[in-house]
């Protein structure tokens, strides 16, 4: 946590070069700027304290001679703050980064997938120089290996300079979706950000911060890095194809949603709760199927696969939560088949995972209490007991009313869910 200096100094012990890839967009438009600056100050001071030899920072493109959005201005302010210290800083400045799992890519992808008519405000004609994630990594590694890059700032971008309208049209063409693009007289960023948050997995606070940058042209002004690291950058079209192929191959290693909402790591774990939750429901069945096949079936719930029987009720609940706080079933999941601790599954997060034994999910939906959903497999001779357990903790009257209001639906939801897991294993 870059806002906690002691943790930073501990993380930087014995480090030669540090990559700075931090931003605070999840805090929303009113808070992220001050958090970004404080994080940069803390990092700069910790780097000096631990005698770091070099910092490499990935920031944002934008012409400092023109009025910039809060997001782009903050990216530049962070660069200047890091430079105030004695540690040499190399700065790479990029526009939209195209890669599977990134917030910008998922916003555009979901707009084209879900909306037959796309309304475009006047700022959709702004120019952008997108860059593929593989090229960003090439530059990040490259400047580490080239001494001439120490202490310098570079613009990095792909081969294409496109409007956002053209980027969306290319996406529609690659997805083979016929979409109608219409100009829209309404240009209020907050309005568009909220609408997009309802049809894309990215919450309104992050969407709004990103969209405010669309008002500016973001094009490389300084291409001097090409003489230090000469290679042919990827086109926008190829970058999108590679991102899509990652999804099709189920090889998305990280997603923006794994770190959202903020402070999720501070949430109370089920094992930490004393006394244990007072309210709960349990459903089980005995089967002859193997523990490995049952566990594999459990690990496919959520995302595109859905929640089997009762799927419409889960999605309704996730949709309501999306409107209330921006964390709903649209978040999906990182992988179609594999899970790890802290992965997101719609409005749940993986709290514990024990291969062929247990999957514990913690709710991140808007609730008058805390909730967990546990899947367990227990061996008994040549049979397996498969169970699903719901735990709910509350200390308010409204919380108790909420529990009893949903209690009649538990048999339909959980009994059907557990039978479908067994059937599909």
Structure description:
- The protein is α/β, with parallel strands linked by helices and 425 residues long.
- 38% of the residues lie in helices and 19% in strands.
- The chain contains 14 helices and 16 strands.
- It has a 6-stranded antiparallel β-sheet with strand order 11-16-15-14-13-12, with helices on one face. The protein has a 4-stranded parallel β-sheet with strand order 1-2-3-8, with helices on both faces. Strands 4-7 form a two-stranded parallel ribbon.
- A hairpin with a 3-residue loop joins strand 13 and strand 14.
- The radius of gyration is 24 Å and the shape is globular.
- The two termini are 40 Å apart.
- The relative contact order is 0.10.
- The mean pLDDT is 87.
Briefly characterize the structure.
The chain has 425 residues and is of the alpha/beta class. 38% of the residues lie in helices and 19% in strands.
Unreliable sequence segments? none
Radius of gyration: 24 Å
Major beta sheet, strand line-up: 11-16-15-14-13-12
Strand content: 15-25%
What structural class do you assign from the helix and strand content? alpha/beta
Number of strands: 16
Q: Tell me about the biggest sheet? A: 6 strands, antiparallel
Outline, from the CA principal axes?
globular
Number of helices: 14
Percent of residues in helices comes to 25-40%
Mean pLDDT: 87
Distance between the termini: 40 Å
| Series of secondary-structure elements, N-terminal to C-terminal | HEHEHEEHEEEHEEHEHHHHEHHEEEEEHH
């Amino acid at each position: 946590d870059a806002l906690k200096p002691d943790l930073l100094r501990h993380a930087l012990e014995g480090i030669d070069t540090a990559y700075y890839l931090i931003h605070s967009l999840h805090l929303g438009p009113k808070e992220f700027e001050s958090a970004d600056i404080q994080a940069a100050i803390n990092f700069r001071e910790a780097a000096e304290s631990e005698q770091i030899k070099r910092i490499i920072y990935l920031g944002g493109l934008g012409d400092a001679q023109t009025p910039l959005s809060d997001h782009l201005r903050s990216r530049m302010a962070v660069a200047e703050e890091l430079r105030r210290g004695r540690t040499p800083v190399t700065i790479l400045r990029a526009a939209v980064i195209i890669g599977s799992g990134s917030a910008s890519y998922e916003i555009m992808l979901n707009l084209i997938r879900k909306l037959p008519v796309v309304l475009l405000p006047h700022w959709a004609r702004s120019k952008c120089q997108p860059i593929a994630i593989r090229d960003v990594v090439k530059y990040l590694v490259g400047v580490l290996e080239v001494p001439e890059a120490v202490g310098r700032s570079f613009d990095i971008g792909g081969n294409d300079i496109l409007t956002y309208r053209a980027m969306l049209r290319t996406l529609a063409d690659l997805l083979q979706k016929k979409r109608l693009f219409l100009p829209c007289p309404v240009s209020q960023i907050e309005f568009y950000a909220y609408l997009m948050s309802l049809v894309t997995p990215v919450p309104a606070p992050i969407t709004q911060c990103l969209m405010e940058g669309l008002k500016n042209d973001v094009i490389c002004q300084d291409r001097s890095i090409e003489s230090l690291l000469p290679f042919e950058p990827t086109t926008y079209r190829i970058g999108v194809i590679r991102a899509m192929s990652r999804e099709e191959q189920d090889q998305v290693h990280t997603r923006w949603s794994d770190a959202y909402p903020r402070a999720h790591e501070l949430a109370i774990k089920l094992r930490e709760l004393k006394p244990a939750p007072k309210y709960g429901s349990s459903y089980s069945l005995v089967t002859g199927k193997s523990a490995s096949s049952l566990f594999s079936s459990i690990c496919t719930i959520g995302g595109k696969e859905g929640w089997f029987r009762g799927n419409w009720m889960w999605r309704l609940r996730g949709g309501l939560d999306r409107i209330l706080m921006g964390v709903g079933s649209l978040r999906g999941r990182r992988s179609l088949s594999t899970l790890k601790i802290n992965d997101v599954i719609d409005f749940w997060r993986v709290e514990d995972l024990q291969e062929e034994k247990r999957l514990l999910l913690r709710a991140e939906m808007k609730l008058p209490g805390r909730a967990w959903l546990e899947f367990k497999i227990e061996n008994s001779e040549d049979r397996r007991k498969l169970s699903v357990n719901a735990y709910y903790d509350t200390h308010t009257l409204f919380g108790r009313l909420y529990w009893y209001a949903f209690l009649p639906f538990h048999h339909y939801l959980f009994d059907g869910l557990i039978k479908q897991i067994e059937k599909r294993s």
